[in-house]
Amino acid sequence: MVTSSKKFITLERFIHEQEHLHPAATGEFSAILHDLSLAAKLVWREVSKAGLVNILGTTDRMNISGDVVKKLDEFADETIYKAMDHGGHLCVMASEENEDILHIPEEYRSGGYVLLYDPLDGSSNIDANITIGSIFSIYKRISPEGKGTLADCLQSGYNQVAAGYVIYGSSTVFVYSTGNGVHGFTLDPTVGEFLISNENIRIPKKGKIYSMNEGNFNLWDKGMQNYINYLKEEDKATGRPYSMRYIGTMVADAHRTLMYGGIFAYPGDKKNPEGKLRLCYECNPMSYIIEQAGGRAINGKRRILDVQPTALHQHTPVFLGSEEDVKVCEEFLQGKRK
Ligand code: AHM
Ligand code: MG
Questions:
Q1: Around Cβ 315, how many Cβ atoms within 10 Å?
Q2: Domain check: are 28 and 171 in the same one?
Q3: Distance between Cα 282 and ligand 1 center (Å)
Q4: 98 Cβ inside 6 Å of ligand 1
Q5: CA-to-CA dists, residue 252 to 120, 168, 198, 278, 301, angstroms
Q6: Which residues are catalytically annotated?
Q7: Domain span including residue 175
Q8: pLDDT averaged over consecutive 10-residue blocks of the chain (338 residues)?
């Protein structure tokens, strides 16, 4: 018999094995991750059909079975909510697509956890068939019981008990961490399972790629401009000039940064001093993953995960990636280097 060293471990089994590392675990938390992986498959199924909608016949936003065709981001938003609302493990949710917190329907039990999610990140890329993703973040509730509250959702990122994302790219990958390393699972669509593909991902200490919307260069402050000019200078010892890669989907740009190293940023600028990305839905979960993989994530002044959110949809500048790259960037932002 030919044997191979490859392990076929499903996400489901991996989650159970991780649960056994914590003797006090109730299984509640594992159940949330299971439900999320189901939501990811349902969203993937729709995302992968996106380009076919016109071919399969839709008129006036009605599909062939007579249902109204929803925008993909609305579909993803509802799908994730519905996959998660009845498990009995969550007390409240909040989604980037909704202004207010989302309560668990009265008929279902409330649990001990809180879920925040960005259902479809990079949605402006959908029509061009460019990679998009979903992002999630899980906290323990701080309210004592009953319905979850806004305060449950407005916790600092360091309180996250798990975070992750799903990237719908050339393959679909589910990446998550529960504070015990970062693990990636690739969807095998033929069996409908996420199989382990990247166990214990570590971000390189330093990379050679920078990723940001440089079209905003003239709106950035001097420190940021100096940093970009520095990255473009030639210097063999520090591997410059760096390459620039920018997809415009945070999930994809952050995932590449996680795998290859370097830096991803969305700085504040003259028009939007707090940048474009959201602290609770995008920056906290991504910062958690990057830190768990050995990287660094700051808002220019401090660690992202230490920021106390004051509003669900608040924005924050973000600089994340390889430890060394983010440190050098920070020195430029703080005027220590010019
Ligand atoms: P979205 O959540 O509406 O898709 O917007 C967020 C996206 C991020 O994925 C990405 O990093 C950023 O917007 C790109 O913005 P820009 O087009 O300004 O570069
Ligand atoms: Mg987004």
A1: 18
A2: yes
A3: 10
A4: no
A5: 12, 9, 16, 16, 25
A6: 67, 73, 96-97, 118, 120-121, 282
A7: 11-198
A8: 74 89 79 95 90 57 52 92 96 96 96 96 87 97 95 98 96 95 96 96 98 98 98 97 98 98 98 97 98 98 98 98 98 96
Best residue among 96, 220, 276 to mutate for probing ligand 1, ranked by most atoms within 8 Å of CB: 276
Cα four-point dihedral sign 204, 207, 211, 217 = positive
Do 92 and 182 belong together in one domain?
yes
User: Which amino acid is it at 182?
Assistant: V
Distance, CA 307 to ligand 1 centroid (Å)?
21
Measure the CA–CA gap between 159 and 228, rounded to whole angstroms.
Answer: 33
| pLDDT value of position 59 | 46
H or E stretch at 29: helix 28-47
Residue-level pLDDT at 24: 73
Same domain, yes or no: 77 and 160: yes
The token duo for 51 is 């380009």
Same domain, 149 and 216: no
- Together in a domain, 192 and 221: no
Q: What pTM, to 2 d.p., does this model score? A: 0.94
Within 10 A of 228 (CB to CB), how many other CB atoms are there?
Answer: 19
Give the DSSP H/E element, type plus range, for residue 183.
strand 182-188
The distance in angstroms from the start CA to the end CA of the chain is: 62
β-pair partners for 249:
none
Residue with tokens 């938003």: 77
Q: φ, ψ for residue 112 (rounded to 5)?
A: -95, 5
> What's the pLDDT at 293?
98
Residue 58 has what pLDDT? Answer: 47
Q: Give the pLDDT of residue 57.
A: 47
Distance CA 13, CA 25 (A): 15
Kindly give the number of the ligand 1 atom that is closest to the alpha carbon of 252. Answer: 9
Q: Which residues neighbour 66 within 8 Å (Cβ) at sequence distance 6 or greater?
A: none
Residue 175 and residue 26 in one domain: yes
Q: Which of 165, 198, 231 is the last residue of a domain?
A: 198
Is the alpha carbon torsion for 296, 301, 307, 313 positive or negative? Answer: negative
Domain shared by 266 and 141, yes or no: no
Ligand 2 centre distance from Cα of residue 305 (Å) = 18
